[in-house]
Amino acid sequence: MDSVYIQRVLNGITDDFRYLIRKYKDLAFSVALSVVKNEFDAEEVVQEAFIKAFQNLKSFRGKSDFKTWFYRILVNEAFKRIRKTKKEMLLSESDNVPDPEDISDSFRGLDEEEQKFLVSESLQKISPKECLILQLFYFEGNSLVEISNITGWSEGNVKVMLHRARKHLLKVVNAAMGKELIIVKNELS
Amino acid sequence: MNSAKEEKLIRELMLKSEAKMPFADFEEQLMQKIHKEAITSRSLGKEIKLSWFFFVVGTLFGLSLNFIVMEMNKTILGLPLQRLMLIIQALFIIFLVFQFDKLIALKKNVIGHHRDT
Predict the structure, then answer these.
(1) Core-most of A103, A173, B71, B93, by most CB within 10 Å?
(2) Which residue of chain A comes nearest to B33, CA vs CA?
(3) What is the DSSP code (8-state) at residue A98?
(4) B112 contacts in A (CB within 8 Å)?
């Protein structure tokens, strides 16, 4: 379906680009947010990526699907943005990986809003690359090959980073969960 | 076993990471920019084509004028016209190269603008 609208845009019906914006804006926002960690920056990154995609639509040959091609632009823009703002992530490597079952039980004990808040807070604390990979693999359901095509990183590298990202996320969620439980205990006492 | 549980948990966590575009006017603002971009891109393309057209026409006109004047045996202020033409030809070539360079730079700028913005 994308290709029909792309062809129409290329034929001069600019308004049909709206279809692509509507279809991809939320997913693109999630991806951008995972890298830049700020809603306003993420909005600008998505906007710039769409404009760039429009300008270069002629060069889209349809070899890969539009989503992969667009995400490549988006990811480049997002990393360009964090290079500009020189955001650096401080990560703790020392803690042991917690038991998933423990986290799982505590996590399910939280209500929907608390779960969403906890996940979004935890994702803020892991590095942009790791967060991006988790987002593309688990949330968007891309394969390792697709992630490699989008990011330009080798498949092996993606695999290693995905493994590392999983461990990091569990550590951060576990730490956040501890704080959450302390808050709940304080509220109860 | 632990790895499968870990995988399941991560999947469960990531499903809660969905973020929706919170800015209601995002689509309208972006479409305005896209329309503006389309107009700029069309007019830029037209201007570049016109620049090349006038460059070629001007070059051909200059060359023909050169040949016509070279055929004349006249003097201006005591100097033979053919000698004067050597100076004019040198200036013409410098001008030609300068204009050609400007047109190439313009084309590169347009491509660069498309890559950067």
Answers:
(1) A173
(2) A51
(3) P
(4) none
Q: How far does B66 lie from chain A, in Å, by closest CA?
A: 42
Looking at the DSSP bridge assignments, the partners of residue B75 are: B80
Nearest of A29, A43, A41 to residue A71 by alpha carbon: A29
Of A85-99, A156-170, B3-17, B50-64, the range with the lowest mean pLDDT is: A85-99
Q: Are A158 and A133 in contact (CB under 8 A)?
A: yes
- Tell me if A122 sits within 8 A of A169, measured CB to CB: yes
In the stretch 90-129 of chain A, residues with CB closer than 8 A to chain B read 99-101, 103-104, 107, 115-116, 118-120, 122-123
- What lies within 8 Å, CB to CB, of A42 at 6+ separation is A29, A32, A33, A36, A78, B19
| Chain-chain contact of A170 with B10 (C-beta, under 8 angstroms) | yes
Measured between alpha carbons, how far is A143 from A115 in angstroms, rounded to an integer? 26
CA distance A130 to A137: 11
Nearest to B16 among A34, A99, A119 (CB): A119
- C-alpha A132/C-alpha A140 separation (Å) is 10
List, as ranges, residues 153-172 from A with C-beta within 8 Å of B. Answer: 166, 169-170
pTM, 2 dp: 0.72
**ipTM (interface pTM):** 0.74
Structure tokens at A16: 């049909």
